[in-house]
Design a protein that fits this description.
Strand content: 15-25%
Distance between the termini: 64 Å
Number of helices: 5
Shape: elongated
Number of strands: 4
Number of domains: 1
Order of helices and strands: HHEHEHHEE
Structural class: alpha+beta
Largest sheet: 4 strands, mixed
Radius of gyration: 24 Å
Length: 203
């Protein structure tokens, strides 16, 4: 009887393990969706208008600080970043918001852009192919890079607005948006240096 009991226990354990293995979710693709592509300065203007709309909505909801002057703070370099700051100021003023002509240090609209290089995307091609075979699809054509544009409205160390949009750009124009992030390494915010400890990226 002890041997029979042990055999039953082993079989029951094997059945439980088999059931657990079968319950694992299958690998699948994200739902199909579109991702906009920036291909002209006019697109930068549209993006600046969208940011200004978010800022106005936030200040309308906080009427006591609605007339606080806003510092437009550039936290990146390159042609896009230089022009985007001007576009932001124009869009904010056109909506009746107060924009500081020099730094006042009360409320800040900060923005930055991070570039994911074509080679970084190419490194993911194998998994994209796997997803395509599983029913997904690779949405970006070859020769494209991706940029993440972050805007944040900060007042007294609190975010009133924080948004990051992701866009395709032509790989040949990627440098217009800045230097690509090193593959496999988190980016550092302007003024930061690599150090010990844990830090949160993608703010």
């Amino acid at each position: 009887m002890p041997k029979a009991s042990s055999l039953i226990l082993v079989l029951a354990l094997a059945a439980a393990l088999a059931a657990a293995a079968c319950s694992r979710p299958a690998v699948g693709a994200f739902p199909s969706e579109t991702q906009p592509k920036m291909a002209a300065v006019r697109h930068w203007e549209i993006l600046a208008g969208e940011v200004a709309d978010r800022v106005k909505k936030a200040l309308d909801a906080n009427s006591e600080i609605a007339q606080t002057p806003i510092d437009v703070v550039q936290e990146c370099t390159g042609p896009f970043c230089a022009v985007f700051g001007q576009l932001l100021a124009s869009e904010l003023v056109s909506r009746g918001l107060q924009v500081a002509s020099r730094h006042e240090g009360v409320m800040a609209l900060r923005y930055r852009v991070q570039v994911v290089a074509p080679e970084e995307r190419a490194a993911r091609s194998a998994s994209e192919t796997t997803l395509a075979m599983a029913g997904g699809e690779s949405k970006a054509a070859s020769g494209t890079a991706e940029v993440a544009v972050t805007s944040e409205l900060v007042y007294q160390n609190r975010f009133l607005v924080h948004h990051t949009g992701i866009y395709y750009v032509d790989a040949a124009e990627a440098e217009t948006y800045g230097r690509p992030l090193p593959p496999g390494k988190p980016g550092l915010a302007p003024g930061e240096s690599a150090g010990r400890g844990v830090r949160i990226t993608g703010e």
